[in-house]
Task: inverse folding
């Protein structure tokens, strides 16, 4: 019941640009947690805005306006010599440690997947080295047919957008 009450008093903000100071602060906390050092944060956020991949995010705030977490995602196109497939790609995903285990991660993931469905994507893909069980619980499966450039295992989920006759 406590988790349900916490979820009722949240605000989700859809972002198409990454100049929001709340998002930037959360992203910096996330990278700090990962041990990633960035020399030029302003340049990184500018690059995220201008990289041409169609980056989007949902930023979740609690009732006090504090950041709970975020999920960053974009369209991704896979193509070969004959076929093309568009997938939703979960790029970055973080929930503040104090807010984990309360349903916020599940809610943020559902928001991104909902956006993918609205865009007509048939699936979602991500890599993880920290939370495979979380993603498996939400219908993702390890797919050894995908090779991620960062070496992390790739997980995919069918979003059920196939056209039926």
Result:
């Amino acid at each position: 019941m406590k988790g349900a009450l916490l979820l009722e008093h949240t605000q989700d903000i859809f972002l198409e640009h990454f100049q929001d100071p709340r998002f930037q602060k959360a992203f910096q906390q996330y990278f700090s947690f990962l041990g990633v050092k960035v020399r030029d944060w302003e340049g990184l956020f500018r690059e995220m805005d201008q990289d041409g991949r169609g980056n989007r995010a949902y930023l979740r705030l609690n009732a006090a306006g504090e950041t709970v977490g975020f999920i960053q995602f974009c369209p991704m196109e896979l193509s070969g010599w004959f076929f093309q497939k568009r997938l939703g790609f979960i790029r970055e995903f973080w929930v503040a440690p104090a807010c984990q285990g309360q349903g916020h991660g599940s809610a943020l993931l559902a928001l991104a997947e909902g956006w993918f469905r609205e865009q007509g994507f048939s699936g979602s893909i991500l890599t993880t080295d920290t939370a495979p069980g979380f993603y498996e619980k939400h219908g993702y499966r390890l797919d050894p047919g995908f090779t991620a450039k960062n070496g992390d295992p790739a997980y995919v989920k069918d979003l059920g957008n196939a056209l039926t006759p």
In short: DSSP finds five helices and seven strands in the chain.
